[in-house]
Amino acid sequence: xxxxxxxSAGPAVLPRDVLVQAGDxxxxxxxxGMSVMEMSHRGKEYMGIQxxxxxxxxxxxxxxxxxxxxxxxxxxxxxFAMVPxxxxxxxxxxxxxxxxxxxxxxxxxxxxxxxxxxxASSEDRNFSYAPxxxxxxxxxxxxxxxxxxxxxxxxxxxxxxxETGDVPLVADMSSCILSRVIDVSKYxxxxxxxxxxxxxxxxxxxxVREDLLGQTLPGTPTMFDYKIHxxxxxxxxxxxxxxxxxxxxxxxxxxxxxxxxxxEQQNIAxxxxxxxxxxxxxxxxxxxxxxxxSRMNVPFTLKDAALDEDFLKGAKARGLxxxxxxxxxxxxxxxxxxxxxxxxxxxxxxxxxxxEKARG
Length: 360
Ligand SMILES: *Cc1c(COP(=O)(O)O)cnc(C)c1O
Known about the structure:
The protein is α/β, with parallel strands linked by helices and 360 residues long. It folds into two domains: 16-256, Type I PLP-dependent aspartate aminotransferase-like (Major domain) (Aspartate Aminotransferase, domain 2, 3-Layer(aba) Sandwich); 258-359, Aspartate Aminotransferase, domain 1, CATH 3.90.1150.10. The protein has nine helices and 14 strands. The strands form four sheets. A seven-stranded mixed β-sheet has the order 2-10-9-8-5-3-4. Strands 11-12-14 form a three-stranded antiparallel β-sheet, covered by helices on one side. A two-stranded parallel sheet has the order 1-13. Strand 3, helix 4 and strand 4 (115-121) form a beta-alpha-beta unit. The longest helix is centred in the C-terminal third of the chain and has 21 residues, at 260-280. The mean pLDDT is 97. Bound molecules: pyridoxal-5'-phosphate (PLP). Pyridoxal-5'-phosphate binds at residues 10, 75-77, 102, 148, 152, 172, 174-175, 193, 196.
């Protein structure tokens, strides 16, 4: 059977070329007589794979030398705790922007460790936009400022970088990392679960500025200390070796495609195919404020929710899957990460037009 167009929010589509190469190398990696899965993480083959993955990620994102790149486990959800444990550094309050479900989870976890100051919230309009910085109320004494540049569930993206002066800026980039060019030097910490735009579930990428290391909250477990992982090059314990290997293949694929600036242009074009159509019809609509429309996760609703089931059924029959929206938003959601080919988005828009013609 040929591959489907998978619009899942995560775990999500991976580049076909990457899967094919991984398949070719599955049993015997580059003639070494074993699978990457079977290699010692301390052996020279695997250490080379991980070092190359890190080097390629550094090149793709232009990560400055004074930042550590960590490959951890526990998902972005563990970072909701690790960030306060590592970044409070003797202070007891932290600033958080609340733009949706993932922000809320980060805030809830941080409250276990710190006094959380919510600088602004878009809950008043069901998280359909992001408050601009002029309405934020930053606390000058905060240890850091946390935000979620792309809310995967609500499809709300912030395309500008907050200005926080000397207070470290922390970003949960799980669903937008590698989708557009960012200036890493503006951030204290960037973290992302891999299963959206990096690779398979099980790897968490953390990019942290070196001067923020080594001042963890008393009682922080060893495994939750960024410095332990930084000092041990993400090999304090057994890293998620196979996932890191696949992530490395994705980084190579991105480089071959021309890098992040090229991906960004493609992502703009892919998202425009969908949004332009949503704007041109009354049958479907986007619930998100225009300036915050995510390029990665595109929620939309049908005029008549009673047609949702039929819409999904028809989509599935054409090989367009995982389009059901999150229950908090309803309707549909098309996640169109880097690895979603433009042909997939075109096929979706075509189907949407035909469904409208038949049922509108
Ligand atoms: C998926 C996601 C998470 C949760 O990631 P896990 O790896 O499942 O813990 C957190 N934040 C954002 C923005 C996400 O998209």
